[in-house]
């Protein structure tokens, strides 16, 4: 029974050895680098760290992003049903088609609501 766990144990040992080896190599290579005040500063991109850390984004950006994620996830839910649609019709009848049509119509109403509210208009 122990031989069944041998590949798992071997995988754990290899992963731990790789993680430990890369940490040791990082410490050894890091000590060889020369240190100075410019290298030790918080920002090494050439810009002075003055001002706010993050720029302010418009709320419109977040609304459009959330709507994109929402409708994208809905498409992900529709795709598997579209792949096996003919098999589902054969097994359950046209009732499954009405359910899919209802789901799509709810999505259409949500899209029209967002459009009418101006959530998709960038110019405001």
Q: Could you describe the 3D structure shown?
A:
Helix content is 69%, strand content 0%. It has 124 residues and is an all-alpha fold. The protein has a domain of 59 residues. The longest helix is centred in the N-terminal third of the chain and has 30 residues. It is flat and about 70 Å long. The N and C termini lie far apart (68 Å).
In short:
With 124 residues, the chain is mainly alpha-helical. The protein has helices at residues 2-31, 59-83, 85-92, 95-117.
Q: Which features does this protein show?
A:
mainly alpha; 124 residues; 4 helices
Topology:
Elements: H1 2-31, H2 59-83, H3 85-92, H4 95-117
**How many distinct beta strands?**
0
Strand content: under 5%
Main sheet makeup = none
Shape: flat
Per DSSP, the total helix count is 4
- Name the helix and strand elements from N-terminus to C-terminus, one letter apiece: HHHH
From the alpha carbons, calculate the radius of gyration and give it in angstroms: 28 Å
Output the structural class.
Answer: mainly alpha
* Helix coverage percent: 55-70%
Note the gap between the termini: 68 Å
Mean pLDDT: 83
| Poorly predicted runs | none
